[in-house]
Write a structure and sequence with these properties.
With 260 residues, the protein is an alpha/beta fold. The protein has five helices and twelve strands. The radius of gyration is 19 Å and the shape is globular. The termini are far apart. The model has no long low-confidence stretch (mean pLDDT 92). The structure holds flavin-adenine dinucleotide.
Length: 260
C-alpha cells in the first residue's frame, strides 16, 4: 500500500507530490493521460495532460521574467517530482472507496479504467475537472454551472479523513501559481497528518542550526559551501539543457474548436 495516491499529475498534483515525496512518503501520481488515455493503467514517465498544456505562453508564473513555454514548465515540474521520488502511472481513476468503512486509517482502494486497483493510505484529488470517482465517499461536492468543485478546509482536507483536494478542483482561482501553491499546502497537510518526521523542507548553509547549538530539524538539511556550489552547477546544467532548444510541442486546442 502507498502512503499517498495523487489523482491528477497537473500543476497542483505535481506540486503536492514534490512535498510528500521529499518528506519520505511513498507517493504515486496517477493521471488520466489527456485525450489519448491508455486502455489500462500503465507505468509512465509522463504525468499526463494538465489543462495548462492549452496555454500559448505562460507569463504570470513567478520566476520567469519573459514567460515560459507551459509544456516546458510541466515537463520540468514532472522531472522535479520524479527526482523527489514520486512515481507516475497513466490511468483514469473511476472510483475510490474505503478499505474498511469503520476505520478510514486503513486506507482507500482506487479503481482505474481497465487496470488493477491501487491502494493508498491517503488520497489527494487534483484531477480538475473530474471528481466523479469521489462520489462513493460523499466528500462534499458543490455544483456550479456544469462543473463540480470539492469542499475543503484551509489545508485541503475534505469531510472524509484521509481524502484531500487540491488546485482548481478545490475551487482555487484558475491560475497556475495558485494551483501549485495550493498543491504544496495540501501536500504539507498530508505530511503533517501522517507520521512523517518533519519540521520544514529547508536546505540551509552549514551552521544555520548547528551554529546555534541546535540539531538539524527533521526534513531540513545543512550543506557546506562545496556542496552548495556543486548543486548550483548541476541545477544550471539541467536548466541550460532544458532551455537550449524550442520544444517540439504545440498547445492543445480546446476540444470544441479542434474538430472545426
Ligand atoms: C487555454 C488556457 C490557458 C491558460 N493560461 C494560463 C496562464 O497564462 N496563466 C495561469 O496562471 N494559468 C493559466 N491557465 C490555468 C491553469 O492551466 C490552471 O489553473 C491549472 O492548470 C490548474 O491546475 P490543476 O492542477 O488544478 O489542474 P490541471 O493542471 O488541469 O491538472 C489536472 C490533471 O488531472 C488529470 N485528471 C483528470 N481527471 C482524472 C481522473 N479521473 N483520473 C486521473 N487523472 C485525472 C488531468 O489529466 C490533468 O493532468 C490556463 C488554462 C487554459 C485552459
Amino acid at each position: 500500500m502507498r502512503d499517498v495516491c495523487i489523482v491528477g499529475g497537473g500543476v497542483a498534483g505535481l506540486a503536492a507530490s514534490i512535498f510528500t515525496a521529499r518528506a519520505g512518503l511513498d507517493t504515486i501520481v496517477v493521471d488520466a493521460g489527456g485525450r489519448s488515455p491508455p486502455s489500462s493503467r500503465t507505468q509512465s514517465g509522463d504525468g499526463g495532460e494538465s489543462i495548462l498544456a492549452r496555454n500559448a505562453s505562460l507569463e504570470n508564473y513567478p520566476g520567469f521574467p519573459d514567460g515560459v513555454d507551459a509544456r516546458r514548465y510541466l515537463r520540468l515540474t514532472r522531472e522535479q517530482a520524479r527526482t523527489a521520488g514520486s512515481e507516475f502511472e497513466l490511468g483514469r481513476v473511476t472510483s475510490t472507496e474505503p478499505i474498511d468503512e469503520t476505520a478510514l486509517e486503513a486506507g482507500f482502494v482506487l479503481e482505474t479504467a481497465g487496470g488493477d486497483p491501487l491502494e493508498a493510505r491517503r488520497v489527494i484529488a487534483a484531477s480538475w475537472p473530474d471528481s466523479e470517482y469521489l462520489v462513493p465517499l460523499d466528500v462534499g461536492r458543490i455544483k456550479r454551472g456544469s462543473k463540480h468543485f470539492v469542499s475543503v478546509d484551509e489545508a485541503g482536507r475534505t469531510a472524509v479523513d484521509g481524502v484531500y483536494a487540491a488546485g482548481r478542483l478545490a475551487d482555487e482561482p484558475h491560475q497556475a501559481i495558485v494551483a501549485a501553491g495550493h498543491g504544496a499546502t495540501v501536500g504539507l497537510a498530508v505530511v503533517h497528518d501522517s507520521d512523517a518526521n518533519f519540521y520544514h523542507d529547508w536546505v540551509t548553509p552549514e551552521g544555520y542550526f548547528t551554529g546555534r547549538g541546535r540539531e538539524v530539524p527533521p526534513g531540513c538539511e545543512e550543506i557546506g559551501e562545496d556542496e552548495r556550489l556543486e548543486r548550483d552547477e548541476r541545477a544550471r546544467a539541467r536548466m541550460l539543457e532544458a532551455f537550449s532548444e524550442p520544444l517540439d510541442e504545440e498547445p492543445t486546442m480546446h476540444p470544441s474548436v479542434e474538430g472545426k
